[in-house]
Amino acid sequence: MDSAELLRQAVQAARNGRELTARDLFRDVVRLDPNNELAWMWLSGLLDPLEDRIAACERVLSINPGNQRIRVYRDKLLQEQNAEEQKKLSKLDEEVQQVRWHIKDGKRDEALLLLQKILRENNVHKEAWLLFADLSVSINDKVRAYEAVLQVDPSNDFARENLKRYRYYQRNPLELAAYYEEEGKLNQALELYNVLAAEASNVSEFERVYRNIVRIEDTKIENIRHIRPAFTILRLSVGLPLLYILEMLVQEGLNPIRHPAPDLWIGILIVIVGSFLLTVAGIRSRHVIWQKWFGDPGGRGTSMSRMLVAVSGWMLVLIPHLMLVWDSFMRLQTFQIPTIPWIR
Amino acid sequence: MFPLNDTEPNRYSWFPFMTISLIAINTFIEIAKPLYLPDNIGLWQYWEFMMRFYFTPKLILAAEGPGILSSFTSMFMHANFGHLLGNMWALWVFGRRVEDACGAWRFLIFYLLAGIGADLLTTLVMFNSPTPGVGASGAIFGVMGAYLLLYPAGRIRTLVIISFVPAWPRIRAGWVVLYFLGVQILPALAILFSDENFGVGYWAHLGGFFSAVFIFLFMRPEAFARYLSDTAV
Lengths: 344, 233
Hints:
By secondary structure, chain A is mainly α. Chain A contains 16 helices and no strands.
């Protein structure tokens, strides 16, 4: 049967209301004659998904660019498609907003379930993937989520940084659990430790993880307050500069104006920096120093980088102190021992 | 009343490295004293030695002599073995658990800070005093004050002699420390309002004690969180 006969049968079927038969016949026609404008025009009305109808219109326009009727029809279909997508997206956005409310109300499980539903329906929803990455305990899920975000938005630096970090955590999972603890996310830390305990390859590894589980459970039972690492760093950085200030006051007879020693006072700034570095090296927490200076993907510093920063800190603290001691020695050189006051 | 021992165990570390080290350094300096201060030393040489190594408020205020160096040297020297024993015993009783709450190095910095705080208050109050002072007691009072802040409910095995009968009950730390603080106040006021000099650095003790408030700058993160949570440090 030639394409003209097929076309005639197809049109007949369409006019008789046998749409499925007509559609199949029109498909056979375009298979035999891919440039049959009339067949494509009929298909643009018979095909089912909107995308296929639009594709049929495009095909007609590529065969005959002057077909104004189809052009208008194509534009109408495109508008319909847009409206449909908008509707779908706004429904998803509403659901994402609902996820946020669940998170705010502490309903993490509900939030995760809803997110999984959203991502099943639309796996290119960036916000949903970001929330999923944030909520999920599994490191593999986080990596998957950030990879998905980068597929949607390759210029997303936040996702790129986090992907790098969580790939590092895939190799060092205990580091992530420790990070959760620092941030006060004890439940997440506990969940991760439980996963790690279940996945432990030997007894010693299990015991190491188990000790952490016991410690966190004790912390929860005793209701110990969480203190942010930044505050701890600030608190512990104050001690050494304070000691230096007291030393300076003693050295200058409690009166820095009467006995000025600007070079020694500059030492305070050096001690502040040194004390800060020492504290940062001593407190296991995510800090910009480890990320920017040492390029550490975990952001918590390796033992080598910590040692380097600690040594620098000690040196910065010691130098002004040595200057102070040197000043004392210099004063001793010219010191005239006073007479004994009780012997006249 | 003489504190014998803190009966509570450590929480964070098993060995009080810095407390033991401080006791060892102080003891070593006292044992080595005859090397730099022989028995047959003359009065002037002894005076010269004191002016160089002991803490003298008048010199400090005039910004003369060794300055801060004398604060450190006097903190590690003692008048005699009895003086050393009393101080080191107190350091052992109260220092072990304060060190536990801070960690060794932060404890050392706090100890030095309390010692200098003691010297500062002495200089402020006895600014005209030419009498050199020596001993770790200012710093140790700082440690005692810190103990009072951190472990007010702790119990100290204390030797008490009532009518010549010795007893060693476990007394609440708060009472022991407050007793030692209390016995400083009257003589300190007497020094302030008269020209009395009892040969004891009462104001240094008070200065060290008040420096104890800085302990919060030196506590381990976990100990500090426990303190803020009203849980045993």
